[in-house]
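Progress against Task 2.4 (sequence-to-structure conversion) is shown through the following example record, which the project officer requested during the mid-term review.
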Amino acid sequence: MENKPTVVMLGLGYIGLPTAALIASKGIKVTGVDIHQKVVDTINEGKIHIVEPELDGLVHHVVKEGYLKASTEPVIADVYLIAVPTPFKGNHQPDLSFVESAVKNIIPTLQKGALVILESTSPVGTTRKIQEIIFRERPDLIENLFVAYCPERVLPGNVIYELEQNDRAIGGIDEASTEKAVAFYKNFVKGELHKTNSQTAEMCKLVENSSRDVQIAFANELSIICDKANINVWELIRLANKHPRVNILQPGTGVGGHCIAVDPWFIVSEFPKESKIIRSAREINNYKTEWAIEKVKSTALQFKIDNGRDAVIACMGLAFKPNIDDLRESPALHVAEELAKDGFNILFVEPNLKTSEKFNLTSITEAKDSCDIMVFLVAHKEFKGLNGKIQMQVLDFCGVREI
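Structure tokens generated for the chain above:
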């Protein structure tokens, strides 16, 4: 591989586009591939279709300089990165159809010596399945193709910095593939590159997010207990964390996004008998969302009894975490939609979205002036210090008034 390899990025979403733009910023020519023509056209105009700090300027620059272009079809390249969705289907079973489709799409363009890297969060063994799919159709590539797995470790809202600075675990299907992948990531990653095998790298990503899910579950369970005991959970956690070896996380409306809310199920689906704590954590965090819905409902019903009319309920925040526009697996969105479905008068408030095809958005100002019950579901920075009418009731599930 040359010092400046050519790259194809399959998937131009919340991970694929920032990664493609970062690679392109190092003077490497990248072709970004996405199945949505609108996404392709937007990027080729030097614009972006997602909310991520610093990404718009970076994409504009690399597109203008000719290092990044988008297409609906892959081209011949030295390196192929796969960053497509891996949701689950049915009873939390991993859906690898997007990965398989991406792999089949690049098979005609693969040449001897090419490097294929899977970045999508996947069950253990997926990287080897990719190799098998390719070799079935291209036996000429046996012993002439490098395949590896390297999961991203980024925080939405700080993706560009973390893509470059965070350590990476890189595992190939063989030692040569690992070395080839490490050499590639050195082009744009400043963090340490840790060599392993593909199975360990796959499990590493799942374990990282499962660990966080378990810790969040403890905080969410604690918040439910404290509500029943009439204890301020935020004050309790602050005090408990004064212990030098205690670090309790903050509770919330639940757990969302395409990582923590999904990845643990990949372990549970493969190891159902062994993953008792991991499964319980998932169930607790899902229950916290349903508990929040019931809390809002009981508050609204009491309002109706006291005032003789239905309450106007402002659901403050719809994204799965603060200060982003990502609605994937969002517990906040689930709360708002379930309440609306059950006939409650809901105002949808999400300052990080300009429009939505699914619901009518309400501004923060309109919500605080017109609602009877303000329900904080996500701790967006715009909500800090927010006060409404004197008689307004407040339910704070994310600690925006405490943190």
